[in-house]
Amino acid sequence: MRRDATSRAGDQSPARPRVRETVQEPLVGEGPARPRIERQAVTRVFDGITCYEVPARAALERVPEAAELPFAWGASPYRGCEAGCGYCTARRGHRYLGLDPGGDFATKIVVKTDLARRLRRELASPRWDGEPVALGLTGDCYQPAEEIYHLMPGVIRALADAANPFTVLTKSPLILRDLDLLRDAAKVTQVGALVSVGFVDDRLRRAVEPGAATPQRRLEVCATLNEAGIPCGVLMAPILPLITDSTDHLQATVRRAAEAGAVSVTPVVLRLPAGAREWYMRWLEREHPGLVPRYQALYGKGQVAEEGYRLRIAEQVRALAETYGIGRDARRWRRRRSPARQLALV
Ligand code: SF4
User: Fold this and answer.
1) Considering the domain boundaries, does residue 71 fall inside one?
2) Ligand 1 touching residue 245 (CB < 6 A)
3) What is the pTM of this model?
């Protein structure tokens, strides 16, 4: 969904893009070399981006404990993400679809075209107890594909009609397209947003978050949401060890989040699950080869940095947030599983 040549990453562009599209019907049973998803989906290609349209097998998905996020449940219209952040932990999902979590992640997007309908059904189930739902954990729910598919309005309406609390996670200004819907939903349930801003250095953003809006633009989105009455915090994710974890980096990010009126700041140190690890380490070897042994010491063979390091970062961010007055009125999240998480939630 590359927009026309005048579009830039970070533009808020409510207009539908002009796209060239080709369509391929599902080819059930075709050769084993084809990715599994390709044999099950209707495939459309928009200006070089392949979209696999599939029915949602389940709308509500458990958030893995290892994600260390303050949500137990998530729902996402998309798998894969054009922003193509080098560290994205959602990359691993592509592996299960028979796709390359590296190169395919930003160019082959799974689209759950009936997500809203499926979500309505699951929210109405007597087994569902109305827990808060996070939107956009397997791919930004306001990525460029949303300009074509318009799935989020249906998802927001489904949650609002069920009066089910939810939080939208995004790096995209496109969320402002749905501001009125979010405000309507906030009249009947708890609605929040988290914009992800791990650092505010735009040169670094171009290197590791090539398709994402600038940190400045994201913070403007945060400010606009808060001014409109949608409580929006900053997910400081990820903090890149030895790259964006200096006091200067942390301070600049927390200060700018405070200036944007963020209601909370939640630091998340880089996680390196399989899929993300290979891709990120390849970048690190290329751009910062001297840091590779230090990462190996910090992560070992695991996917999270050693606990002492994570606790130190969480404490630093907590202290900075206090200095800048963030979170004094922030609501407390319901789920707190680990000491690291308790410190991380401000
Ligand atoms: S914007 Fe979010 S979902 Fe998309 S690639 Fe970046 S981290 Fe992943």
Assistant:
1) yes
2) no
3) 0.86
Q: Is the CB of 140 under 6 A from ligand 1?
A: yes
Cα of 83 vs centre of ligand 1, distance in Å, is 6
Which residue CA neighbors atom 2 of ligand 1 most closely?
A: 140
How many angstroms is it from 189 CA to the middle of ligand 1? 26
| H runs (alpha helix) in the chain | 36-40, 91-96, 115-123, 145-149, 152-161, 179-186, 202-208, 215-227, 247-259, 276-287, 292-299, 307-323, 339-344
For 115-160, how does the pLDDT look when each residue is reduced to its tens digit (9 = 90+)?
Answer: 999 999 999 999 999 999 999 999 999 999 999 999 999 999 999 9
CA-CA distances (angstroms) from residue 205 to 24, 105, 218, 288, 293?
35, 18, 12, 15, 23
Provide the residue range defining the domain that includes 140: 35-189
Report the pLDDT value the prediction gives residue 72, as an integer from 0 to 100: 95
Does the residue 125 lie in any domain? yes
Dig out the tokens for 34 from the structure: 């084809």
Give, for 238, the enclosing helix (H) or strand (E): strand 232-239
Is 48 contained in some domain? yes
Nearest atom in ligand 1 to the alpha carbon of residue 237 is 7
Across the beta sheet with 78-79, what order do the strands follow?
21-24, 42-46, 49-54, 108-112, 78-79
- Structural domains in the chain (count): 1
Start-to-end CA distance of the chain, whole Å, equals: 36
- Would you say residue 194 lies in a domain? no
Measured between alpha carbons, how far is 330 from 346 in angstroms, rounded to an integer?
Answer: 8
- Residue 177 per-residue DSSP state: G
